[in-house]
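target protein:
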Amino acid sequence: MSGGAGADEALHSLLAGAEARLPLLTLAPAFLPAPERLLLLAWAGLLGECESALFESSDPRVRALRCGWWAEELAALPAGQPRHPLGRVLATPALPWAAFAQALLELAEDDAPAASAAAAEAALRPLASAVARIDAALAGSTDPGAADRFVLHWQGLALGRGTAGAAGVPLALWARHGRRPADAATAPGVYRDWAGQLRARIAPPRRGESLLARLLAEDDRRRLAAWAAGRPAHPPPPRWRRPFAFWRCARDAALHYRIPPAATT
């Protein structure tokens, strides 16, 4: 990493933001060596920034601009020319950053709600597959179901932020309740139903899956359970419970978090 003290301060600030998005990451110092912790937090932070852009709910034009900027940043990582401090930690030609960038742009342009849960999953699958490949390479994971974790995570994020589009509540569920997306403000039952369905689809931890995937699933279970029960508030787990929750996620997980070597031909 280069850029002097200013870049270091910016990086630490952004890593703190990653921890704020996923409170269990505050336990990483107790479980991972410093280099691996830095890479995990940088990857979680970069993914969180892309998610924040993708699920921007204020204006589709703002979402397009933000996703476009991050797509350019992802595309610069193989050449080692990122502008963002998080990118400077992760820059390498060994990972499929171009596929991540392309899938992010394509999903950002898709404003139409999915007709069904299956259609929503199909729309999110290209981005989930690209992200899962990067996550697996960084963590040393061989879990074939990693993309499912990210699909469900993004559907939960869209629900929490009231975002429509492919990750939002499918049209079939609105129809089942006899409502329309335009009725969102007066149809809490639709959101409770969808939250319950998403919560039920979160699979138990699988041996060898990445630590980040497990941490996301742990956080998703808590949030979706609260929403399904009609509780809009979903405070993070108490600090005294976080070490056990982190250990449970880390047990039998892929933890190495190293930049893989670039393939040579």
Remarks:
- The chain has a mean pLDDT of 88.
- Residues 113 and 263 are 39 Å apart (CA to CA).
- Residues 4-250 form a domain with the Farnesyl Diphosphate Synthase fold (CATH 1.10.600.10).
- The chain is about 60% helix and 0% strand.
